Amino acid sequence: MTDQPSEFSPADLARRRSAARRLAWLLGLAVVIIYVLGLFIKR
Amino acid sequence: MEQVQPVPRNHSRLVIKLLLLVAGAFVFAFALVPLYNVLCEVTGFNGKTSAGFAAGGLKAGLAQAPASRVDTGRLIRVEFTGTVMPGLPWEMRPLKVSLDVHPGELQQISYLVRNTADRPITGQAVPSVTPGQAAQHFEKIECFCFDQQTLAPGEAQEMPLAFIVSPEVDRDITHITLSYAFFSIEGQRQTLSATAEAR
Amino acid sequence: MNTATTANGHANPHGDGHYSGLMRWLTTTNHKDIGTMYLTFSLIMFFVGGAMILAVRAELFAPGLQLMQPEFFNQLIGIHALVMIFAALMPAATGFANWMIPLMIGAPDMALPRLNNWGFWLLPPAAILLTMPFFLALFGIGDGALATGWTFYAPLSVQGGMGVDFAILAVHILGISSIMGSINIIVTIFNMRAPGMTMMKLPLFAWGWLITAFLLLATLPVLAGAVTMLLTDRHFGTHFFDAAGGGDPILFQHLFWFFGHPEVYILLLPVWGLMPHVLATFSRKPTYGYTAQVYAFIAIGLLSVVVWAHHFFTAGLPVPALIYFMFSTMAISIPLAVLFFCWIATMWKGSMSFETPMLFAVGFIVLFGIAGLTGLILADVAADAQYHHSYFVVAHFHYALFAGGIMGVMTGVYYWLPKWTGHMYSEKLGKLHFWLTVISFNLTFMPQFFLGLAGMPRRIPDYALQFAEFNAISTVGAMILGFSQLLFAWNIWSCVRGGPKAEARVWEGAEGLEWELSSPPPHHSWETQPVIK
Fold first, then answer.
1. Are the beta carbons of B25 and C1 separated by less than 8 Å?
2. Cβ separation of B14 and C516 shorter than 8 Å?
């Protein structure tokens, strides 16, 4: 299945992997922050 | 990749089964019509009132309302309203806007209905009770909505209604509204359902 | 890898070879030709339905009546919905199925090719029936198209003009076409899979379509029954929905939504089926939770037929029924949450790259998530009493059906277009199209949530002054959204005409039988079936 040359080098792919993981943690953190902020909103 | 000649398959059995599913679903749509009416009568859904006491008339109705059945502990306000639908040149109003009744008590009121046109016209009233939870406990003993009504030109008639609010009605219910919609049945085919289901 | 597929060695690239020109397309039984016709028809109708709603948004730009009378406004919104649902989204999904399912499961063609041709050619007459009353009214015949909104609610539809009859007949024909397409897809999936491809090795796209096809077979006949009753009420003196004759208008709402709710999942299941393929490809990881996704599809299919009454909570249902429909509706969010989890987990720790299809896929997940969360609010009986029939509902279902449905279809188009045409589309234009679409979509519909919360009713051509600013924003967004779709059409057109050559495996991370075939695949593919281990 790997008969096609990849347009990304292995180092490139690894960099994308860690970038994706960083972004995921960041988004998760944002969700938690919004959730916690919501606890302080009084109507 | 290993490859083989495809095996020819006969598709007709599966196609017939799927067509049966389609036909079944189409029949189901029409079966929902009677099913829905049954459901409405059982649950009072949509304000369909109980039809169980309609057949016997006033005399049988009185037997349904022995004094022992009356719940004098509470009063329910029954409000009356009526609308004449477009295409019927009539006027209607209840002689009393509301009545305070004890559950189990037999009550009678009338609607005044007048034909404003210069020709005789036949109409059919369709009742609805709100809230829906009360509808199945609203027993009509006699009602002008059981039959089609014909009024001569300019004629005014008091159309009577006798009913019992069953003592089984939920204690939360303090107000019941009975509404009639009077329809012209001119130019419409007078099917059996027109009178049978209007109850 | 691709050598075997050319083994059938047809001299004529157009295979059947009996006709050329128009007759080729009228008589073709080839799944690829029919798929192309479905997709082309869908794209054309997408612009027809879009033009209608741009006129509506132009009218709503400012309070008061500027461009049209309320009667015409009513016709536009109803026909817009019917065109988008029945003539744009459903044919697009059927086009995907025709093109891709045989390639994905290693079948030489669809099981019932002649039925397939007939299924497509019913669509153009139906589309003409649907829109013809607009043009007839120009010549003084009739009073225009269906003006009841797409839901045909009785008693309004019993009283409406001849546009209602045109729409009823169009819906009948569209329904027959969809039923034929569904039978074909089910038979193909059940009987034509490559040896060794068990049901649990079936591509998820085929699974999604299988559930869609069964839902169509079970619910479209109910809609056909309901509109048939409407037709006989209008012309043959029956009283199914006519209270004067002992009928019940609310019965129509039950019948309509018994079809109408599953219809939402009919539109979305093919998209949910293709998402995992795209996400896995561009994350360079296998799909996460294949089995869980299959069972989620089945659960959603089953639940979708028992929740219909949440569309008319305010019609006066008894309290126990309200509670049942509220909880069963909310229960659907559980299998959907499973799908969202699987989509996100597929991307988790992947080496992601963001080509156009992946951008659309990620955009789909975010925006479709908003659709789901606002749907939960509407499922709440107490809250729905306020939001029912407001712009909140309009915004909610456009997040579901534009961001969920149409952006999902665009994901598929960009993902498979190089496979179909053999050329790469312009990545630059594709990305521009994505960003214009996603920004202007939110500009259009996000304000509508707030308009709805503030009490603006839907389907009314005029509104109170306090709604003016958000409506103006929404109209500006809609204009950008509408016109940026021309980029989409242009990109497809130039990709069909030419462009850099696409390889068999268009995307380096792509897995599956369809990528074993050349791009474009030969006119007759998988005449010898691959064996799956």
1. no
2. no
B108 and chain C: CB distance < 8 Å anywhere?
Answer: no
* Pairing of β B76-84 and β B175-184: parallel
Residue pairs spanning A and C at CB distance below 8 A: 33
Q: What is the CATH number that goes with domain C3-516? A: 1.20.210.10
Per the CB < 8 Å rule, is C351 touching A14? Answer: yes
Which CATH superfamily does the domain covering B47-196 fall into? Answer: Ctag/Cox11 (2.60.370.10)
For residue C370, what pLDDT band results from cuts at 50, 70 and 90? very high
Domain positions in chain A are: 10-43
Q: C246: distance to nearest CA of chain B, Å?
A: 5
Phi, psi of B115 (to 5 degrees): -90, 115
Of C352, C353, C505, the CB nearest to A4: C505
CA-CA distance, C352 to C355, in Å (whole number)?
Answer: 9
CB nearest to C111's CB, from B11, B30, B184: B11
CB contact under 8 A, C229 and B132: no
Q: Which chains touch A (3 or more CB pairs under 8 A)?
A: C
| Residues C326, C277: Cα–Cα separation, whole Å | 33
Indicate the domain borders of chain B.
Answer: 13-43, 47-196
**Per-domain boundaries in chain C:** 3-516
Give the burial string for C81-119 (b: 16+ CB within 10 Å, else e).
bbbbbbbbbbbbbbbbbbbbbbbbbbbebbbbbebbbeb
The tokens describing C242, both together, are 């006519």
Rounded Cα–Cα distance for residues C239 and B191 (Å): 9
pLDDT beneath 50: ranges in chain B = 52-56, 188-199
- Share the mean pLDDT of chain C: 93
Mean pLDDT of C159-171: 93
- State the complex-level ipTM: 0.86
At C27-51, the pLDDT tens digits run 999 999 999 999 999 999 999 999 9
Enumerate the β-bridge partners of residue C390.
C457
| Predicted pLDDT of residue A26 | 93
Do A and B make contact via 3 or more CB pairs under 8 A? The reply is no
Interface contact C529-B188, CB threshold 8 A: no
| Contact call for A17 and C350, based on CB within 8 A | yes
Interchain CB contact of C529 with B (< 8 Å): yes
Q: How high is the pLDDT of residue B58?
A: 55
